[in-house]
Amino acid sequence: MTCQPPKRRHRRPWLILTVVLLTPLLCVSLIELRLFIAARGAIYHDTDAVPTRRVAIIFGAQVLPEGQLSVALAHRVDAGIALYRAGKVAQLLMTGDSREENYDETGTMRDYAIERGVPASAILLDPAGLRTYDSCYRARSIFGIGDNEAILVTQEYHLPRAIYTCAGLGVRASGYVAAPFGGPRGQEADLREHPARWLAWWQLNVSHPTPPTVR
Fold this sequence. Notes:
Blueprint: H1 13-39, E1 43-44, E2 55-59, H2 71-85, E3 91-95, H3 105-115, E4 123-126, H4 132-141, E5 150-155, H5 159-168, E6 174-178, H6 183-207
Parallel strand pairs: 1-6, 2-3, 2-5, 3-4, 5-6
């Protein structure tokens, strides 16, 4: 009787394919979990519950061609005004894209707040807050905002990324939820937020970009 060696089992292609497909999914899921853990317990919906801090950082968003705030941006500025009126912050730092002559997010935000009773002396402008990363980086390096000195103001979908990014850049902060905006634009913003979270992790842990330093 002749003994033959056992046949070598070949790896099943579907198993390899499963690993290839699931590994990136697991990585991005862990990144998103990391962001939500960083923001846990630091997001407030009720103005009265918000801790008193030095400044509210209001993140920019689209300004319409006719010079009006988009719904999302108006809600953010309204939320910042509510914090100021409630005595929760002494200043509003409005950060956004104001590089071009015919497009001015921060100036339009300022005018909107002044029209609603906020004194100009209580408003700071960061015209080079082009991205969340830039706004958080410049809040510390240009405006000297440190840990536990700020409330971040934006929609709830954006707050985990904003809180995580600012904390990674030396500005540990709480977040205050601005009113949401629905419809197709709201759904689109929710979808875009996922890759934006992955990029935030990459910027903080790998690429470390240097934002603009202009005032």
